[in-house]
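Design request, tokens follow.
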């Protein structure tokens, strides 16, 4: 086994301004509103945090900065970290546009999620939206340990990641087959990674299922609630696909494969619950 390969990280230079403005989740809403409006996916994840005035919030992998902006607008003290220099610059620009917020309510730092530059037990909420899939397993474990360290005992860790890897591996081939039978095969390439944003083929190194994300959170000392959801679907799909969707989204175990997005809200448990890293 090549342990050096397992310890690699994606270079920060992969995350350019073009990536954040044309490929990173929520870019359409960001470019049209300059960060004032969130995409459906980001809004759903952000609502789980229940941010209130006076809270200390950390956004790990803050990207363009729109989440920081919304935290500040709610009166929270919002801190963002990203290891891509371009993301730090973009976030700083976005949070400066917030009106009516006292100076010092926001701060953006270039830092590694595996080494958070904050004291222990400091944050009420730690957010990690669409970051998990960009971290190799060993990195994700270390980053979650750092979140555990900086989160207050009664704090909350909010995670969103996509796609659900079980959808791509097992459900997508079924959907593609049905679509091909309906004469829509040209719209569904064999590789599901080509269906979305092509650049994500190179930066998604650790896509999750409901079960793998739950396991990762538990290993890092959290008590998680993890569930799946999907974006709104085009209902012009015919009888066969409509019946398949009704079956797939009705109940487990089918929905574990057909739902597209993974959400989690995790509570901090004592450090004795942390499991050692895998070799």
């Amino acid at each position: 086994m090549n342990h050096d390969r397992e310890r690699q990280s994606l270079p920060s230079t992969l995350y350019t301004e073009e990536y954040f403005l044309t490929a990173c989740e929520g870019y359409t809403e960001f470019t049209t509103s300059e960060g004032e409006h969130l995409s459906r996916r980001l809004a759903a994840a952000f609502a789980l945090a229940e941010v209130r005035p006076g809270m200390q919030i950390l956004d790990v992998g803050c990207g363009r900065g729109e989440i920081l902006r919304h935290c500040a607008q709610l009166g929270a003290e919002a801190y963002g970290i990203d290891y891509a220099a371009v993301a730090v610059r973009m976030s700083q620009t976005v949070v400066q546009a917030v009106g009516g917020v006292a100076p010092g309510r926001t701060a953006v730092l270039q830092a590694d999620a595996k080494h958070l530059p904050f004291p222990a037990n400091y944050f009420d909420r730690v957010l990690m939206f669409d970051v998990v899939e960009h971290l190799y397993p060993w990195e994700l474990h270390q980053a979650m340990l750092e979140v555990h360290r900086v989160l207050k005992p009664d704090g909350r860790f909010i995670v969103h990641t996509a796609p659900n890897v079980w959808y791509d591996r097992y459900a997508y081939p079924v959907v593609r087959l049905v679509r091909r039978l309906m004469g829509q095969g040209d719209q569904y390439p064999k590789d599901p990674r080509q269906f979305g944003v092509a650049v994500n083929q190179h930066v998604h190194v650790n896509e999750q299922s409901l079960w793998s994300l739950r396991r990762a959170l538990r290993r890092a000392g959290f008590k998680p609630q993890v569930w799946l959801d999907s974006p709104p679907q085009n209902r012009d799909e015919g009888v066969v696909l409509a019946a398949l969707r009704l079956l797939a989204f009705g109940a487990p175990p089918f929905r574990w494969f057909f739902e597209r997005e993974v959400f989690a809200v995790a509570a901090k448990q004592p450090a004795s619950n942390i499991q050692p890293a895998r070799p």
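Comment from the thread starter after seeing the answer: thanks! The mean pLDDT is 86.
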